[in-house]
Amino acid sequence: MWIAVDRVGKKFINCSFGSRGTETGQLLWEKLEKKEIGEVMTDHWRAYAAFLPETIHTQSKAETYTVEGYNSILRHFLARLRRKTKCYTKSLEMLKYSVLLLMKYRNRELTIFHASSVK
User: Fold this and answer.
1) What CATH code is assigned to 2-117?
2) Partner of 38 at 20 to 30 A CA spacing, among 63, 72, 83, 84?
3) Residue 25 CB-density burial (10 A; 0-12 exposed, 13-18 middle, 19+ buried)
4) What is the rounded average pLDDT of the residues 3-11?
5) pLDDT tens for each residue of 81-101
6) Rounded distance between C-alpha atoms, residue 89 and residue 106, angstroms
7) How many whole angstroms separate alpha carbon 29 and alpha carbon 68?
């Protein structure tokens, strides 16, 4: 799973599911093409160089703290993403829905109704 986050607005932007290779990263980059992007911060994973424009791309492990924090949030709330767990994803489609639902909730784009608030 590849995710893109907004460091300034502190929000999930989008995600893409697949291998750690260039193809999955390219899919995510295509989803972001219509967004106004100032800078892209990544670690030194080779796949990034294949599709990210050099003019806006900075490779530095010191600059990936925001996305690493969001990876931690995903692992915290979704047991299927934790290491060494009995929970695992049997369906890629359900994993996608779980991640997208959590992203929308964390971005405050989703309202959760509690049974006590329904009259």
Assistant:
1) 3.30.420
2) 72
3) buried
4) 92
5) 877 667 777 788 988 999 999
6) 21
7) 18
**Residues 32, 36, 110, 74: is their CA dihedral positive or negative?**
positive
Mark out the alpha helices in the chain (DSSP H runs): 22-32, 65-77, 92-106
Q: What is residue 12's three-state secondary structure? A: strand
Provide the token pair at 64: 């990936």
Residues contacting residue 27 through CB under 8 Å, at least 6 positions apart: 2, 16, 18
Q: Which amino acid is at 49?
A: A
CA angle 27, 104, 8 (to 5 degrees): 75
User: Of 63, 109, 74, which Cα lies nearest the Cα of 3?
Assistant: 74
50 phi and psi angles, rounded to 5 deg: -75, -25
Structural domain spans, the chain: 2-117
Would you state the structure tokens that stand for residue 107, as one six-digit string?
């971005």
